[in-house]
């Protein structure tokens, strides 16, 4: 299960789904970063039989707002 899980399929709106390029634009990162996040379990794809992999853009945006790494010492 991904750190930032997608809503259930019946709760998805078509306008909230996008390609890896659209996900990268929403998150303000490169498409390769989206692939890394997916491989590390930060986000997950939405897979339909008739289309290629799509991403839930609001979830990707939320994931982009959380920075990785250790917190800085006080």
Uncertain ranges? none
What do the pLDDT scores average to?
87
Question: H/E element string?
Answer: EHHEH
The strand count comes to 2
Work out the helicity level: 25-40%
Describe this structure in words.
With 74 residues, this protein is mainly α. The protein contains three helices and two strands, in the order βααβα. The chain has a two-stranded antiparallel ribbon. Helix 1 crosses helix 2 and helix 1 runs parallel beside helix 3. The longest helix has 9 residues. It starts with 16 loop residues before the first strand and ends in a 10-residue tail after the last helix. The mean pLDDT is 87.
What is the strand and helix layout of this fold?
Layout: E1 17-18, H1 20-27, H2 31-39, E2 55-56, H3 57-64
Antiparallel strand pairs: 1-2
